[in-house]
Amino acid sequence: FQDNDGFIWLTTRTGLYRYFGDGSNDFDAVYEGDIFYDICQDADGLMWIRRRGGLIIYDPRTRSFTDETETARILDSERWIDRFTIDRWDNWWWCEQGSIYYRTRAEQVKTHVGEVNGTVVDICCRNGMTYVLTDIGELYRYSLDTEVGPVALRVLSPLEEPASAEQSFSRVFVDSQNNIWLSQGAHGVWLYRFGSEIPLHLR
Fold this sequence. Notes:
Blueprint: E1 8-11, E2 15-19, E3 27-32, E4 36-41, E5 47-51, E6 54-59, E7 64-65, H1 68-75, E8 83-86, E9 92-96, E10 99-103, E11 110-115, E12 120-126, E13 129-134, E14 139-145, E15 149-152, E16 171-174, E17 180-183, E18 189-192, E19 200-202
Antiparallel strand pairs: 1-2, 2-3, 4-5, 5-6, 6-7, 8-9, 9-10, 10-11, 12-13, 13-14, 14-15, 16-17, 17-18, 18-19
């Protein structure tokens, strides 16, 4: 992940590291001794980081962390947060045990967007759209209406039957041309070209 100051952040199974990009090979160990997964940054420069213990916030200016309890209070959440991301308008999107939530930065109101089948494995925002992928291959898409909030679009699934544990999906990526890529591990990659709901299976 590259932050607003151009620094590269790496989440690993041993800690959280930052690379200054000054031509050296040195990394700043921001936090060690835990497993880190996802990271994103809000308009205030705060880093929202998902680790094994839950979702925490890191302030690069003070080099301090909030704990999971404080983050849960901010999000008004009493359950485990599976995934978290921030869209280009600095609105927050996250998943709690099969439920999708959204909150605008201005109103600070938690809104229940919908439920999903399976376990959420990835969530991303691109060009005003939010994409939520589950392990069984279902892709939930939401557009953002400035007056009514998130609007659910038709759920896409490249498989006729839900994926098994051995076939589970793991990542969703939307490129600059708005093509949607789904990773299915050893079973290859699925591609939805922009404007099409019929996927191509790339092995």
